[in-house]
Amino acid sequence: MKVKELATSAGVNPDTVRFYTREGLLKPSRNPDNNYQHYDAEDLRRLRFARKARQLGFSLIEVRQILDQADDHHSPCPLVRDVFQQRLAEVEREINELQQLHKRMKTALAAWQDMPDGTPDGHTICRLIEHWDDNTPVKQVEE
Amino acid sequence: MKVKELATSAGVNPDTVRFYTREGLLKPSRNPDNNYQHYDAEDLRRLRFARKARQLGFSLIEVRQILDQADDHHSPCPLVRDVFQQRLAEVEREINELQQLHKRMKTALAAWQDMPDGTPDGHTICRLIEHWDDNTPVKQVEE
DNA sequence: ATAAAACCTATGACCTGCTCACAGGTCAAA
DNA sequence: TTTGACCTGTGAGCAGGTCATAGGTTTTAT
Fold first, then answer.
1. Are the C-beta atoms of residues B39 and B26 closer than 8 Å to each other?
2. Which of A95, A99, A132 sits opposite B56 (nearest CB)?
3. Which residues contact residue A127 at a Cβ distance below 8 angstroms, ignoring those fewer than 6 apart?
4. Is B84 at the interface with chain A, CB within 8 A?
5. CB contact under 8 A, A10 and B139
6. β-pair partners for B29
7. What's CA A66's distance to the chain center, in Å?
């Protein structure tokens, strides 16, 4: 397979295939006649694996570590389980944060119903945002 | 105020103040004696506004648009309301996606209990991830 | 047979929103 | 007066690609 064929098979941008190749996630052979890269079924597996892992929140570096371990005939799965657990905790944190943000946005939106737009007057930029309560501790002002 | 004072007052990194100044969000005056930037209370308001807007998911470009409108003595709030609505919808999308991801991760984790680690054998890299169902349509393979 | 379209190559810039590093100038306290 | 803490501008670095450029190759259409 050539670049675009591989990319199409995996549903990614051809440049992503080239990028992953540069980054060492894919290891195609060369056609000496025209210097084209040649990818095989194994590369397709690696690419699909990489995309799935990325969806799960694994970083490219982690993906490469896993693939390298697989190349060395070590079982990469303990590594996968480990990073997966961490990622799961992260996802839970992200959900919590987003839900809090969502709640604050809804509250703000409701409060804004009653507020006039108002042209900035030198003391305020836009009440809508300035009156947003972000729970951030405000430090001392000294001018 | 000098850079660090402003940064401390707003609870941000001094480099962020310099960065925002470069990007035109802050417009300090110069001390001709030593070429230092001089920030006033208005800059502090702008900086705090910018940080709050960033927390709400506004991009730096949007923040600058709002601040520029405020400089032109137009009311920026209709713009704020508009972008805010869009951002709210985005947050809801993100929450949904993350919740689906979370559910799939939990399911996968449960399924993995029964799977052996297994060294890669040339046909599979790591069953744990390859058996992950991502609902992604898989295209035709041609080698 | 030839010309145009569609592909390939490598390299590097661009995106976001900062953060950090560098080299050199300025200013306060000890 | 020296040391440290600050200031200046510029440029690089992060992640994970995407896009642009310039030139070579292969396929398709005329």
1. yes
2. A132
3. A115, A116, A118, B77
4. yes
5. yes
6. B38
7. 18
Name the residue in chain B with its Cα closest to that of A118.
Answer: B75
- A140: number of Cβ within 10 Å: 6
Q: How many domains does chain A have?
A: 2
Final residue of a structural domain among A46, A74, A102: A74
**Does residue A72 belong to the interface with chain B, where contact is any CB pair within 8 Å?**
no
Q: Is residue A140 part of a domain?
A: no
Average pLDDT over residues A46-72: 88
Say whether both A6 and A70 belong to one domain.
yes
Residue B84 lies in a domain: yes
pLDDT in tens, A105-138: 888 778 777 777 666 666 676 766 776 665 554 4
B4 touches strand D (CB under 7 A): yes
Please give chain B's pLDDT, 143 residues, in tens: 999 999 999 999 999 999 999 999 999 999 999 999 999 998 999 999 899 888 888 899 989 988 888 887 777 677 778 888 888 888 888 888 888 888 888 887 887 777 777 666 666 767 767 777 665 544 433 33
Residue with tokens 């001018």: A143
For B125, which residue in chain A has the nearest alpha carbon?
A70
If asked whether residues A39 and A99 sit together in one domain, one would say: no
> At B7, which amino acid appears?
A
Residue A108 lies in domain: 84-132
For residues A65 and A92, membership in a common domain is answered with: no
On whether both A57 and A92 belong to a single domain, the answer is no
Contact A38, A22 (CB under 8 A): no
In a domain, A79, yes or no: no
CATH at A30: 1.10.1660.10
Report if residue B140 sits inside a domain.
Answer: no
Q: Which of residues 116-135 of A touch B (CB under 8 A)?
A: 117-120, 122-130, 132, 134
